[in-house]
Amino acid sequence: MLLLMVVAAIVAVTQLTVLGSPARSVRWSTVVQALAVGALVCGVGAAVLQWGWTRAVGALGVATVADVQRFAAWTVDPVIEEVAKVLPLLWLAWRRPRAYRQLGYVDHLLLGAALGMGFELLEAVLRFSRLGLAATHVHGGYLVSAGLGGTVTVPSLWTSGTSWLPVPAAYSELFASAGDTPQHLVWTAFAALGIAWFGRRRDALRLLGLLPTLGVALDHANYNARLELPPHADGVLSDLLAWFGDHLHLLLVPALLVAVVLDRLALARGRRERPDVLLAGERTMGLDAGRLARLVTLAPPWSTLVTWQFVLSRRAALRALAAGTPEPGLADGIAPVARALEAPGATAAWQGAGRRLLGGLDLSALRSWRLVLWALALVPAVLYLVLGAFPFTASVQRALTSTVGLWLLAAGVLAGGLLTASQLRGLWTSTRAVPQPSLHEVALRRDARFATALSSLGVAVLMLALTVVERDPNGRVAPTFHVLDALSTLLLVAGLALVLMSFVMFPPSLLFAVGAGGLLVPVLEVSSAFVLTLTTGAILAESGVLMNQANDGGGGGGRGSGGDPPPRYTDNTSRTRTYGKSVADIKGQANRWAARMRARGFDADVPPVRYGKYGWADVTVRAVKGGRELIRHFIYKGP
């Protein structure tokens, strides 16, 4: 069921992402990454916090742990959960203010929805990742639970793809036709909008941004109270809150459309202030997409990907400008890119650039023993949670629910945990080394990746300790009543499988991927340099490489020539340096950098890349041993 639940969650956030495309600046892959953060960071953090404080109160002897848990379920815990789900946005505003100012209202809503859906996905997986005896195929999916109150159904692939905001595990009351709604997604999306308002206002009205979080926390508390307390305890206020919660999801799309309008107005103001970021013939309101459409269709998919990344990056730069971000600003790096996109070039040049880029992928790195070990470690979890998660393959899951299966999963968690832990230092270093100013996703994705790895490793240590102590595959992870009721139903063997599956995001070697859907990461700095970064374990092709390869591949008419002045690069301290006075200087600097990387254990080569426009340099880069890559291709452009 895990696979079907994940698909439903991704489909739900994808639908909102598509609707927000006229104004968003975050890529689809970043929104999907927020799903993992919501499940593995926010969900796990909330569970640990709730478990800790309720156990502490119970230890004082004031009441039993079960009584504290029942009281907390409709008082304190909903507040903890709602705050935990938006904590990544709050942390970003506190620790990454430059990156945070690039996010618009639509970005907040999409990221909040993904964080909430990740939390909901975690609860669904904890409850229903293991098949019960009543599991069976029904119309629209698989029935995983049934009782006097209602049924729970995991949607099929077709149902998820043809439904609006599908739920990973939908609850339906008996004799009722209405389906369930992703409540956590809705709650966190509105709370994130409130944070956006609070972060952008500088007057007393900013306090209104706290109301959405307060409102959804009350709705959450009231929802839990109506489940925990006897029916006669409901009052008029509870009924009003219940009615509000039942209809809140109907306001999600109108709220998204309003956010699109607000962001578009802010972008129009930024376009008027910085007309140099516009393409020739573009209007400040940005309603005429003819020029962009021509670039998109020039040589798909390469020109399509690069143009779309340029659009998203420009939106982020203009929002930072509107938010009063101090100089140097990201918009200074966008303007040269706009000029480069308009440089004359034949369609064949773009297509040639794509072929050269694909030809530069070295698949020999996939033979790394670390990657083989990582893949073998994942096999028991894949068998338990994916292949054996259907009624007709339940025998596979039951076979792994044995002592042998338990220790196979434990060995996989140990191997996967060690391989992931080996990447922590590199993740931490790359997180701290984010240059400023840079695109918001540079910091956001690195921070998310590090936090997800750290949380997964923490849970892995806990699960391994429980395995050594309990040694019972069918033992409960939380044998007593727990704040997250879903956790009290989780068996030890399923818990190990879930932890092991989280390591799928941390392959210890290089998985090469060049494709659509947000795999190409544009990292624009004020220097107008493009930095190649690692995301989800893949070497990602940079849009700047494509543009420069296209300009170098023929087509003529480029603005650069041998008589152009040397390119200038503005670093973080606003000092100006001049590079590229000669090919030998650039090549020597690249070779010295590559030598230092070899000394640190780089074990694979990527063929040289040829740069045009301002001279050329064959830059040899190395793939990082242990599954990390820190590659920086600086493409220098004149002012």
Automatic annotation (TrEMBL):
Q: Which sequence ranges are marked TM in the entry?
A: 30-49, 241-262, 371-392, 404-428, 448-469, 481-504, 510-541
Keyword set, alphabetical order: Hydrolase, Membrane, Metalloprotease, Protease, Transmembrane, Transmembrane helix
GO MF annotations, alphabetized: metallopeptidase activity
Q: State the superkingdom.
A: Bacteria
Q: Say if the entry is tagged with keyword Transferase.
A: no
- Region called Disordered, residue ranges: 551-576
* Pfam families assigned to the protein according to its UniProt record, in alphabetical order: PrsW-protease
Compositional bias (Gly residues) spans? 552-563
Query: What is the protein name for this chain?
Result: PrsW family intramembrane metalloprotease
Which species is the source of this protein? Phycicoccus sonneratiae
